[in-house]
Amino acid sequence: MNPRLDLLHPYPFEKLRALLDGVTPPAALKPISWSIGEPKHPAPPFVLETVRQHLDELGLYPPINGIVELREAIAAWASRRFDLPAGSLTAERHVLPVAGTREALFSFAQAVIDSERPNPLVLMPNPCYQIYEGATLLAGATPHYLASSSATGGLPDLDQVDAASWNRCQLFYLCSPDNPTGAVASLDYLCHLITLAERHDFVIAADECYSELYFDEAAPPPGILQAAARLGLTDYARVIAFHSLSKRSNLAGLRSGFVAGDARLIERYRLYRTYHGAALPVPVQRASIAAWQDEAHVVENRARYRQKFAAVLDILRGSLDVVRPGGGFYLWPRVPLDDQQFTRELYRQQKLTVVPGSFLSRDVNGDNPGACHVRLALVAELDECIEGAERLRRFVEGLG
């Protein structure tokens, strides 16, 4: 077996199961899970109907490149959404459909990391989505964790990275809106990161799967392709954006997303995927076209999240140190106990499941930036989120 498998950490939800093992919550309470970021809003009916209409195409081998119509729909959406120069992002050269961002974020590292170069580094936020770390380790590189805290605005402080680390960096994972902090990278931040990538010759993997969940309809989060265009880099050199229908359209089970950007990187990654074999079934591709071409259901989805955040934050105000994020569907409050103890006791008393922040982070020089935080995923329907917030408030107030 690949000895690098021994380097992998248990997934946060494995740790959570072990933490809660043996805990008996009140039998009378309905369980509420705020632990897994799995959208619970209904999937758009027209997308499901499109799948049904094309089930006869399950007999076809799906093309790795994706069907032309899907690539064109994606290129058109990304160009509109991020105000890209006309014709700069093409369906043929700059876009590749993938089986959701999780699959692509992992496999992209396997294709892009040159493990024969000495001591390759992959820079990533801390805390972060654990796929970044696992992809790095299995590609033969070393994770370099950049603390994301309230002091850094919830994103890595790029100016605190030393020159030696930049020079060893081959890949930089960035998530905006961030999981779990909810921080949104400004256009200036993204441009600064691209300038660093040019100077030190590394690739940016911009995880933008939460980009369509935000609060101000007039101010959507900027994206890495948008920043590249602002800098005049219409070849999108060293930049790859990762997007998905999972959060945007409540279609997590469809496993449909795309990568877009640097045509040279896309071409090499396409070669990798020819062997990797994670092509989308054609009915899924047809349904994805319908989803990317419609914005009405996405606007409605944001409105539902906006309503939930307003209700939950109103209930929690004064009891927890928590603020509305810039985007996404997580809250990231500081808690008054050790985060693991807080999580265990909250479940024992209120049958409400959350994730300890330390499970999403790594200790660096004795510091874990996720410690004393918990992640709350407001993915359930409004009534359940309100009930969960009331239980959480009662629990915190009971701590004195």
Notes on the protein architecture:
The protein is α/β, with parallel strands linked by helices and 400 residues long. It has two domains: 3-42 and 297-398, Aspartate Aminotransferase, domain 1 (Alpha-Beta Complex); 61-294, Aspartate Aminotransferase, domain 2 (3-Layer(aba) Sandwich), CATH 3.40.640. Helices cover 40% and strands 13% of the residues. The chain has 14 helices and twelve strands. The chain has helices at 12-20, 45-53, 68-81, 100-112, 130-138, 163-168, 187-200, 224-230, 245-248, 263-276, 282-292, 296-316, 339-350, 382-398; strands at 32-33, 95-98, 121-126, 142-147, 169-175, 203-207, 239-244, 257-261, 330-331, 352-353, 355-356, 374-377. Strands 2-8-7-6-5-3-4 form a seven-stranded mixed β-sheet, sandwiched between helices. It has a three-stranded antiparallel β-sheet with strand order 9-12-11. It is globular and about 60 Å long.
